[in-house]
Specification:
Layout (H helix, E strand, L loop, with lengths): L1 H37 L2 H120 L6 H102 L1
Helix pairs in contact: 2-3
């Protein structure tokens, strides 16, 4: 009985060993087959094809980026050319405005000087001369009125002593009376004119000259303000144009750096 059991154990061990050995052989065959497939010409060609495809994709991407940046660079070149023209125009406009503002200010100041001189001439020469002339005319009128009154009184006395009244006496007395009345009326009118001249006309004309001077002063101040405002506006416009040029220069520089960096990296591949 013991002998049968021993023989059975040996048989099972031999069978297990044979099965394990057979599995190893199958695994080795599959491994060898895989190795053979990996080393075959078809597999190598497939690997090379994948590498070429990746390289072609990178070249296509590089070309697209180059074309895109070229278009962007062309646009920036046009923009900066226009920006330089705008800057030149802004500077020209600023210079032109400075000349025009200077002319406007000079004109306003010249008109002020002339109006001020007219006021000085009026108050220092014209008005006093007209008053003096009116005073002289008034004195002459008073003299004529006095002389006419004296002559008429003399005629009255002379003909009063004459007992014989005739036509000649009446004619002479009438003439004296008329001359006296006219001289008195002329004196009254000249006194009225003198009063109007000194109390109304001269003060109004002086006020008109002063008002014109004030207007010219305001015109000068306005011209200066307009010149300052215009100069500031043109200066701001010039600064904006300069900023636009600087911004575009910076964009172009950044784009150039980007292109140079990409090309350098492309050369290394």
């Amino acid at each position: 009985m013991r002998t049968d059991i021993t023989m059975m154990v040996r048989f099972v061990a031999i069978a297990f060993f044979s099965a394990a050995l057979t599995g190893c052989v199958v695994v080795d065959r599959h491994t060898a087959a895989g190795a053979t497939d990996a080393g075959s010409p078809g597999a190598a060609a497939k690997a090379d094809s994948g590498t070429d495809s990746d390289q072609a994709s990178e070249e296509e991407k590089f070309a697209e980026e180059e074309a895109k940046d070229a278009r962007q660079h062309a646009k920036l070149d046009r923009d900066i050319a226009i920006a330089h023209e705008r800057l030149a125009q802004a500077r020209l406009t600023q210079a032109h405005a400075e000349i025009e503002n200077g002319v406007a200010v000079a004109k306003a100041e010249r008109e002020l000087a002339l109006e001020t001189e007219r006021l000085h001439v009026f108050t220092g020469l014209t008005a006093p001369n007209r008053i003096q002339q009116a005073q002289l005319d008034l004195v002459r009128a008073e003299d004529r009125a006095t002389e006419a009154r004296e002559e008429f009184e003399q005629l009255q006395k002379m003909y009063a002593e004459d007992d014989f009244a005739d036509g000649t006496k009446e004619i002479v007395l009438e003439r004296g009376r008329r001359r006296l009345e006219r001289s008195q009326e002329d004196l009254r009118l000249r006194r009225d004119r003198f009063t109007i001249l000194t109390e109304k006309t001269i003060p109004l004309e002086a006020a008109d000259h002063e008002w014109k001077v004030e207007q010219k002063q305001q015109a000068v101040e306005k011209a200066h303000r307009a010149a300052d405002s215009s100069a500031l506006d043109k200066h701001i416009a010039g600064m904006k144009a300069e900023a636009e040029v600087a911004s575009l220069d910076a964009e172009i520089a950044t784009l150039d750096e980007k292109i140079a960096k990409r090309r350098k990296e492309h050369e290394k591949k």
